[in-house]
Amino acid sequence: MLGIYLHIPYCKTLCPYCDFVKERSRTHVPDAFVAAVCQEIGAFEGPRQAESVFFGGGTPSMLSEAGLEAILEALHRRFDLAGAEITLEANPDDVTDDLVQHWHRAGINRVSLGVQSFEEKVLRYLGRRHDANSARRACDIVGNRFDTWSLDLIFGAPPVEAWAATLDEAVAIGPPHLSAYNLTYEVGTPFEKRADQAIPDDIALQMFREAEERLVGFDHYEISNYAKPGHQSRHNLIYWRNEDYAGFGTGAYSYIDGVRARNAVTTDEYLRNPGEKTEAEAIDDNATRLETLIQHFRLEVGMEKDYYQQRFGHPVEEDYGTVLNELYDRGLLAQDASRIWPTPEGFYLNNEIGLAIIQ
Ligand code: SF4
User: Fold this and answer.
1) Which protein residue has the closest C-alpha to ligand 1 atom 7?
2) Domain range enclosing 333
3) Secondary structure of residue 129 in the 3-state scheme
4) Confidence of residue 203 (pLDDT cuts 50, 70, 90)
């Protein structure tokens, strides 16, 4: 089973903290881009059965109705999507009743709404084009139409005191899924120059814990993700289990049969030859085992020992027994007869687990 990722690299305004592949467009996603993605999907050589589709970006909610339908048709021609989770990321400003009804009719069955905050000052600091009221309105419209959807938040932007109120409002709205990512000041973004405004690690940890305390009724199933029963992101679980996915569109990564490859990172180049891989790297067995282990320990449930045995042909202890024992002793991992999982401490200090396994 495969995950399918589509990168739609257009945004009406560019947020200064963002380091995704994107460019500015004032209107809909250009037809030439839609045609290129359809061409790339049609030419794909690989599995037919897909577990999930994720329209990410950029801003997929800028796809015209005809553009979205054309891409979905191309996907249905090339893949078997029976029972697949099909997610579209949306900017609250783009959400209208009519558009959301169209997404639903077209076959989207999950929306991921980039709310980020319900505090105006935070939204302005982040340079978002929507305000808190348009976020509330968008939640209302999406929540009325979709059984499963995600409300996506960012923490760490000033004023940090607003975080509690944003969490409480999110709980009151009651989405089935919620993500909460820490703001980062990435090199190469306008925020790089503001890196001195980043909150200290202890405050970030405090905000992380505050999310866990306030998001009552949600299962904290991955470091940055919360879900009500039955609403975990099936697409993201593919990444966290280090399983195969195919990426289409500008700069999209694919990981299939041990090869990680990437499309051209500028849309001009992508349009000249859709699907041509500008980077490709064969991931050897050692690296695959390492990545599989580290990714699984982002999940509250961790990893089934049988999963490792079946995927790699021998027990996990044969490869990592010494470091696993060290991590049990440090209280970052726990185990029983069938499973290994991060303790609450291992959840908060997750990069310590990764560092220990890599060394
Ligand atoms: S955060 Fe989203 S909307 Fe903002 S520039 Fe990046 S991709 Fe575009």
Assistant:
1) 58
2) 304-359
3) coil
4) very high
